């Protein structure tokens, strides 16, 4: 009969008893690359001796220790991570998971690599996997992925060995461009590009691919960049020079804009209204993806939308799959967004309705 789990059996006790680091014990149990076979055998034997239940292990004689999943979120704005956490929490119940959360300010992201500043469960070696929420520095993400099975929501880290759950940006761009065409537009710009943010790059690429596929005219000058801080914000931001570029493109015939996010869309909409432009009659705009902003005095922005709860649930399922299949190749799961038509885009033209 299998030995019952000891209440004190965790990665920290295993590592300490063998004179190893928690990171080495964790990687040995996960069968990660770079661990000597003898070291892994030694760790697994000690885990069995102490009654530690390995990830994915089930059996009639034992009740598996719930996996401890840590959701690490940067606090970019109040409540912006709540939907992700709600989706994870609901999904965890049926999957025998314990979900913990830890928030840091964007400027303090590196603190999670400092043993003294880490969450208690992380310091104690009780974390089996990590879900990253919002934007994290590349080096932090890469180091976390070296130690733990990790999934990132929305943000993609090409140099980190982690899975990714995000939105199908190709679908977003294709649906929005067709929506603009149906409304009588032919020249569409892209607002909110930032080279430092993976989803901004992806959405720009999807926009460019879509214009080529649909035979729409485009010009590199129709792409309006923003700063890193502006790209990541969930609030409106002021014109710091981009307004002149946008007005110049309007004069050049651009009468619709694909925006990279809800924040960039809201900022561009405010700019148009301040300039006295009639939205959507004179100029239209829509967001590649977004969340509903509480702005009752503003027109509702047309957007592509995915419930954040669905993204959180998908991230948790992806992480459990990674725990059970540690050698599986890295994967990206893209959820299909749906168009929510607001007040910032035109209805289909009469010719289109015929």
Strand proportion: 15-25%
- What is the end-to-end distance? 73 Å
The DSSP helix count reads 13
What gyration radius follows from the Cα positions, in whole Å?
Answer: 24 Å
Q: Reading side by side through the largest sheet, how are the strands ordered?
A: 2-1-3-4-5-11
Low-confidence stretches: 1-5, 56-63
Number of strands: 12
The secondary-structure class comes to alpha/beta
Q: For the residues shown, what is the average pLDDT?
A: 88
Question: How would you spell out the order of helices and strands?
Answer: HHHEHEHEHEEHEHEHHEHEEHEEH
General form: elongated
Helix content: 25-40%
Characterize the biggest β-sheet.
6 strands, parallel
Structural write-up:
38% of the residues lie in helices and 16% in strands. By secondary structure, it is of the alpha/beta class. Strands 2-1-3-4-5-11 form a 6-stranded parallel sheet, with helices on both faces. A 6-stranded mixed sheet has the order 7-6-8-9-10-12, sandwiched between helices.
Task: Explain briefly what this protein structure is.
With 354 residues, the chain is of the alpha/beta class. It is 38% helix and 16% strand.
Record keyword descriptors for this entry:
elongated, 6-stranded parallel sheet, 6-stranded mixed sheet, alpha/beta
